[in-house]
Structure formats: structure tokens, C-alpha cells
Amino acid sequence: MLKGEDSVLSKARKILIFTEYSETAEYLGRKLKETFGECVLVYSSKSKSSVRKEIIENFDPNAKVQKDDIKILITTDVLAEGINLHRSNVIVNYDIPWNPTRVLQRVGRINRVGTSFKEIYIYNFFPVGVAEKELGLEAAAIAKLQAFHQALGEDAKYLTEEEEVNAHGLFKKMNRLKEDEEEDSLLKYVKLLREIKEKEPELFEKIK
User: Which is nearest to 33 in space by CA: 2, 68, 67?
Assistant: First the structure.
């Protein structure tokens, strides 16, 4: 995916790759460095504070010191909050977390006020057919994100082009979730927000 004149890398100044596991991040870092060299950086909870400083200088447009040494940043969800990375406009979700809030947080690192990009690109790796049939990860994640679209009025697609940014088809998708997921605390809060939106629109606007 990253090779060739028309590759993602050739169209983007910088690429951000998220994975849940530090071991996966380190593996990807080794493999990508074989092709792209020292412009690849890996960050996880094991990394030193100096590495975080390097990331800020390379990915935060508000940093006092601006550098351009790093083109590909591979990180765990330790960077999914509290840091600006919007000198990049491409995110690759190497794995999809069970909690879709993480997906929103990841994308939020580059989809920020002040970005110089007109478009944000999101690429996702999903389980192969057999694994998806057993785990239902993709279906569950999409259904939960669909609930966010309904409750909060989201107009961006995070996982697939099939996501619906309005209410149509929402409950059919939610019903596909396993029974033990229907009581998921995340969905409880989404349902509560939807009720507030319908019954107390002024309060909902404050929350939003």
C-alpha cells in the first residue's frame, strides 16, 4: 500500500499508523524501516520522553520548533489523546479496537481545527472473513459508531463507506450485536444522549 508513485505516502506529507499493541508497533516499525529508512518512528508507553518531543516537533503545527524528519509514525493508543498530530492527514488503523470511542480519538488527532488539509484519509484493516465470522468485530464496531452518528449528528465516516450518517438503518445494524453487547455501557450512554436530543434540545446543544 505504501509503495509506488501513486501510493498513500506520495500523496501525504506524513502518515499516522495506530495499533493497540506495542509489540505490533515495533514489528511494523522494523518492517517499514527496511523500505523507508529513518523517516519511520515508533512510539508506545515504553518510549522515552525525548521521543514524544520529537513527535511534537514533527507532527504538531503549533510546536515552537518545526522539524520534518519523520514521515511515518507508528504508535499505540497512548497517543490517541492529548496531542496534536495534524501535520498529517492520513491515519491507518492497523487494528480496530472493540471500543469505537478509540477510533474517534485516533482520528481526532489529525481532524482538528487549524489543519491545513481539505481532506482527511482513514484506512482500516479488518479481520479476515473467518475471524470476523467468529468475533463479529467489524459489525459491532460499525453498529456502535452508527449509534454515535445518530446521537451526535456526526457527518464523517470512520470505518467504511457503508456507514450511514443519518438514522436510516440504524436499529437494524444495532440488532445484529450479540445479546451480551446490548448492555454495553457505551450504548447506554449513546441512548441517553439520543433521549436528551429529542426531549431537551437546548441541553443537548450544550453537551455537543
Answer: 2
Q: Which of 84, 40, 44, 39 is nearest to 64 (CA)?
A: 84
Specify the residue for cell string 444522549: 193
- How confident is the model over 7-43, as pLDDT tens digits? 555 556 799 999 988 999 999 999 999 999 999 999 9
Nearest Cα to Cα of residue 15 among 113, 116, 85 = 85
- The pLDDT score that the predictor gives to residue 146 is 58
Cα–Cα distance between 61 and 83 in angstroms, integer?
A: 11
* pLDDT score for 182: 46
CA distance 178 to 206: 33
b/e string for 36-55 if b means 16 or more Cβ within 10 A? eeebbbbbbeebeeeeeebb
Overall residue count recorded for the chain in this entry: 208
CA distance 129 to 138: 10
Q: Are 52 and 82 in contact (CB under 8 A)?
A: no
Three cell numbers, residue 75:
504508535
Average pLDDT, 10 consecutive residues per value, the chain (208 residues):
47 85 94 94 92 96 94 93 91 81 84 86 72 53 59 52 47 46 59 78 78
CA distance 183 to 3: 44
